[in-house]
Amino acid sequence: MIVIMITFIACEKETLIATTEKPVVQAYLIPGKPVLVKVNMQRGLVDTASYGLPLTGLNISISDGANTITLLETVNGQYSLSDKNFISTGKTYTMTFSYLNKEVSAKTTVPGKPKGLTISETVISIPQFSPGTDTLDTFIPVNINWENHNKSDHLLILKNDEKYPSGISNGGGFGGFGGSYRDIEVNTGITTSYEIDRMTFRYVGYYTLYLYALNKEYVEILNASNSSSLNLTNPVTNIKNGLGIFTAMQADSLRLFVREK
């Protein structure tokens, strides 16, 4: 699953008081996956924790228009449904629950799976770096292509599948030298291709490439993530009487192997 660290900033005291009373929701509906809705309290501006305290004891339901399911709180603040068949392509889902005598709700529609996903090479050889040489000239860029007739935004994720990822001996490219492993995530925008260059990888081994079709509400949060203390804005959300994100997405995937020459 994809995880977003959402920080909400308010400009005025009155806005801050109103905002901190709202629950923060995180939910990503994906066909073939269990439903998981996380709900936390809004954290304070001086709080160093990533999230506020979990909100427990909520009665959260999700409806597809024909059936309404009540989620089970399996961990404090985490409400789930184990049925992997409940989420389907093209259906619209509505989430509702009550908090502080107000109805919190959100709606999203499951997009179709991206079509026509291809990659020009499934085995990628990373040249060794030697001082005084230009290894970039010896690497042929790898092209990823897909169809996008609906002109939708997409998210590309490269995930190393090795249990213990092995770093490229010369330090690798993406993210610089050293550091711990992290997935490679690229918001491709409205396009039909992406080019992988030699600097993309810091680790060798098998990877799964995921291409996610995104909904408008998710894209709006991605585009709003560049807010700063010099550009204070109201938090972007599709949660009525709440904050956060309730969205759906769907991915196609393929495998590739990265090695050193």
Question: Can you lay out the helices and strands and say which pair or pack?
Answer:
Elements: H1 13-20, E1 23-29, E2 35-41, E3 61-63, E4 68-70, E5 72-75, E6 78-81, E7 92-99, E8 102-109, E9 118-119, E10 123-126, E11 142-145, E12 154-160, E13 166-167, E14 184-189, E15 193-196, E16 203-213, H2 216-224, E17 243-248, E18 250-260
Parallel strand pairs: 1-17, 10-18
Antiparallel strand pairs: 1-2, 2-6, 3-4, 3-7, 5-6, 7-8, 9-11, 11-15, 12-14, 12-16, 13-16, 16-18
Description:
- This protein is mainly β.
- The chain folds into two domains: 13-112 and 215-250, Immunoglobulin-like, CATH 2.60.40; 118-213 and 252-260, Immunoglobulin-like (Sandwich), CATH 2.60.40.
- The protein is built from two helices and 18 strands.
- Strands 10, 12, 13, 14, 16 and 18 form a six-stranded mixed β-sheet that branches.
- A hairpin with a 2-residue loop joins strand 5 and strand 6 (78-81).
- The longest helix is centred in the last third of the chain and has 9 residues, at 216-224.
- 28% of the residues are buried.
- The model is unreliable at 1-17, 45-49, 172-177 and 227-232 (pLDDT under 50).
Observed structural traits:
Immunoglobulin-like; 7% helix; six-stranded mixed beta sheet; mainly beta
Arithmetic mean pLDDT = 84
Model regions low in confidence, pLDDT < 50 over at least 5 residues = 1-17, 45-49, 172-177, 227-232
Encode the helix/strand succession as letters: HEEEEEEEEEEEEEEEEHEE
Any idea of the CATH class of the largest domain? Mainly Beta
β-sheet strand percentage: 35-45%
Structural class: mainly beta
Reported by name, the CATH topology of the largest domain is Immunoglobulin-like
Shape: elongated
Integer count of domains: 2
Per DSSP E runs of 2 or more residues, the count of β-strands stands at 18
* Fraction of residues in H or I helices: under 10%
The CATH level-2 architecture of the largest domain is identified as Sandwich
N-to-C span: 32 Å
**Separate helix tally:** 2
